[in-house]
Amino acid sequence: DWSSDVCSSDLDTPFLEELQKMGELQDLKGLPEKARFPKEWWKGPWPIVGSFSQAVIVNTKFVDPKSIKTWADILDPKYRDKVVIITPAAGLGVVTFYTNLIDSQGADFLKKLAAQNPTVVATSVEGSQLVAAGEKWIYANNVAYNTVALKAKGAPVEDAYPPPVSVVPYPAVAMKNGPNPNAARYMVNWLLTKEGQRAICGQ
Hints:
7 helices; alpha+beta; elongated; eight-stranded mixed beta sheet
């Protein structure tokens, strides 16, 4: 049973492919806006309607964002007890983040990060709020919309983007057996419009 009509999040491709094999996804080929949407943002039978880059957010009272040029910079002993990380259980995007760190920084990077005695949080919002409050200085898995919201409230925060930057795509699918299948198609189609893109991407 499905209680949702549209799913759009950092859903992994095997999961969506399994739903498709089970006959749970609608065919979106006939959407009116598909012809106007960039072809490179269609991954098989579903569109990628958005994405987010994972950054390092810092409290500028304690850390100069320009000083975080590499991932090794957050391993500086002066940041011990001042770093926040997120649990891998938070979702696929977080797993991708940690995988990219291991691939780019080496298998021992996470051990070195653990030596900083980081605070582990369940959500990205929680991590960025700890930094904004000054309780912690660095959160290593932030997304830009957290920073925008916090800066609008006057928080002394900025993002840094040490390479490589992890980018997580957001596909959108319409459920065939949800409570409102017709509305689901309209919703996904709207996400492909300029208005929908501005709403979901914030631009």
